Amino acid sequence: MANKRNATLVVVLIIVAVAAILVWRPTVLINGIQAAGLYASIAIPMGLILGIVHIVNLAHGEFMMVAAYVTYMLCIATGIDPFLAMLPVALVTAVFGFVVYKLTIKQALKSPELNQLILTFGIGISLTQVANLIFTSQTRKISFDYVSASVDIGDLSFGVFKFVYIVIAVLMVVGLRLFLTRTTTGKAALAVGQNPRGAAIVGIDVDKTYGFVFALASALLGMMGAVFITTSSIFPAVGSPFTMKSFCLIAMAGIGNIPGILGASILLGVSENFLKAFRATRGWADIVFFVLIITVILGRSIKGKKA
Amino acid sequence: MKKALAIVAIVALAVPVFAQSGGTIKIGGTWPLGDITGKQGSMAAQQAVDEINAAGGILGRQLELIVVDDELKADKGAAAVEKLVTVDKVDVLMGGMASGVALGQIPAMKKYGKIVLATGAASYKVEEALGSDANWYFHLHPWDYNQGASYAQGWDEIQQKYSAVKIKKIFLAYEEGAFGKASWDATKTLFGAGGRYVVDGASFKSAALGGGDYGSMLEVAKEFKPDLFLWAGYDADALPMLEQAKAMRFTPKIYLGAPPGWPVGFGTSKLSENVMLYGMWAPSINEVSATSKKFYDGFVKKYKTEPATYFAPLSYSAVYIYADAVKLAGTTETQAVIKALEATKYASPLGQTISFTASNIIKHQGIKNQKILQWQNGRMEVIWPFESMTAKPVYPFPKWK
User: Do A233 and B34 touch (CB under 8 A)?
Assistant: First the structure.
């Protein structure tokens, strides 16, 4: 009963806060949700790998960078729109992810976690350097008219295209939930994630499941990389900052909690933009990120101790 | 007999090698090769070396360029100087881009006192670290305060020449790092002092460092209603910021960018039209400078790509300036070459003649002026200084359609 009352209180507080922000400065919410969509849709594939394969892929951002370059080349060569390129790019990155898994990560699954981290970190650096050799450090960007689509409400004009990221993030959450709970492969993946040894005893091919999950996450990241080039410039190091951000969002949400990643992203995106609304706190956006992570993780630890 | 033949053969093979290594004039270059500016800087220097060698070399000797990657790291840059001077025994040092790397190299440079032709390092801190005694240091790139002063002069002259251009309110959007903050400090000092201009600004996190959301910054800028909107960030910010400005219907009278380089094919985007920029060189200068055309054509022919930033023509200039000085001095002896360098008058591909005069601290400062350019029909056109002008400015920046 007390829990229910607390939950209601939290919901009411959130509604009041959102209403207050909307009245005071609606762009805080608009920009915050748009940023949250981007963070979440990049972090969710990493959350899938971490939740099931139990590997922190420090080359996560670089995988997206590869997808972004593949999309860029495809769009330049054929003139197609990145949204049409999503499927072929997803196929390419799925194969790429599967090959990387088979050749490297699979070999390190039973190694100490530090070795796994060093391995994926090395893969990330290698990918960045190869991209630098092929494309140089000069940035690339294709302009699309629809990216500047906007809405005018009174004196307020704001871009609406970036809401596509929150749509993608929601689709990923719903799609993965359906996949993991309604399909045989998904249920097997969930079982492997919870208890690989037990899953193997009941006849689930753990290695095959890991390979499949890695390929699926890479495909999702590939689709995201395709859309990413519509709003962002690409260069060899473009993915790196998203690796740490994704990992921290997963830590905030709790490993295996995919909808939680979306929630953590919204909290982060809105908080960042709230601070940016004040001149004195404009540069604190990165600090709020770490403050939130420390608070959430500490809170969870204290709660765990009490329990 | 066989023994004698073998000895003769060995000597015959060895003599040209010795003659070549002893006979070449060695240029030691340090650039960050992982970055396009450094990579193309070293490529342009090699182009100049090849051109001079093809024309017979200097004093009957060939030039040899030895390049070490400084990896944009101060320690690597310092090690590169040590290696070039002590192992390769170069006659001159040149290159460089980042001020942080130059600061790391200065102790080694001071130790050996080799002639340095610096193509980068804009920070006044580098000049302070050099001190007034570094007569072996020839700085080609303008110092940060030179750049700021030249922009102020440029806007004054543009407003005098074109009566329609009126600037009162200036807004600077600056990236959160050291580069952006230095730009903000310089802008406040240069334009804000004396109340002639009203200056405001806001920071943003550059896309190059994981940012790329300019909404809140543009909101502040839009409320300020600036006559001149200037952003100091990186090439990764150029198009996304324009896209967001368009979405927010933000149209200042002058939209000006000051990144170190521009994205591949920026000029082909419709959004680039009439964006202004600060810089030192553009291919359009080929129309007003024969040296620029020679450099550009040679670079494209040799490397099958366009020079992307002004560091390429600047590095090309460094080699020619040194070669001309050695020719004038008739020797590679340091003091004689320094004297010859002081007499430099090199019509550079940058569209201006380079000579060395004193700056705030050092005695040998090369270029002091930057240029104001504008993207027009996919090309960077020089609109100031007027002696290098390739097109008239389009003013005001058109409203978004």
Answer: no
**Does residue B197 fall inside a structural domain?**
yes
Nearest CA in chain A to B265: A140
> B263 to chain A nearest CA, in Å?
5
The residue of chain A nearest to residue B266, with distances taken between CA atoms, is: A141
Domain count, chain B: 2
Residue A268 included in any domain = no
Work out the mean pLDDT of chain A and round it to a whole number.
91
pLDDT tens-place string over residues A181-223 = 999 999 999 999 999 999 999 999 999 999 999 999 999 999 9
Query: How close are the terminal C-alpha atoms of chain B, in Å?
Result: 89
Domain count, chain A: 1
Indicate if B109 and B207 belong to the same structural domain. Answer: no
* A251-256 CB contacts, 8 Å cutoff, 24+ apart: A251/A293, A251/A296, A251/A297, A252/A292, A252/A293, A252/A296, A252/A297, A253/A47, A254/A300, A255/A47, A255/A50, A255/A51, A256/A47, A256/A50, A256/A51, A256/A193
Q: What is the pTM of this model?
A: 0.85
| Structural domain boundaries enclosing B171 | 146-279+371-388
Task: Please name the residues in contact with A48: beta carbons below 8 A apart, sequence gap of 6 or more.
Answer: A176, A213, A216, A217, A220, A258
Instruction: Based on the fold, state whether residues B110 and B150 are members of the same structural domain.
Output: no
Q: Are the C-beta atoms of residues A224 and A45 closer than 8 Å to each other?
A: yes
**CA-wise closest residue to A90 among A172, A189, A6, A177:** A172
| Claim to verify: residue B201 and residue B182 sit in the same structural domain | yes
Residue of B nearest to A136 (CA): B36
Q: What is the DSSP letter of B296?
A: H
Which domain covers residue A161, as residue numbers?
39-238
In a domain, B21, yes or no: yes
To test the contact with chain B by mutation, choose from A153, A244, A270, A276 the residue with the greatest count of B C-beta atoms within 10 A, namely A276
Chain B residues lying within 8 Å of A247, measured CB to CB: none
Which residues contact residue B325 at a Cβ distance below 8 angstroms, ignoring those fewer than 6 apart? B337, B340, B341, B343, B344
* Interchain CB distance below 8 Å, A241 and B247: no
What ipTM did this prediction achieve? 0.89
CB B60: neighbour CB atoms within 10 A? 7
CB contact under 8 A, B248 and A138: no
> pLDDT tens digit string along B37-57?
999 999 999 999 999 999 999
Interface of B with A in 324-363 (CB under 8 A): none
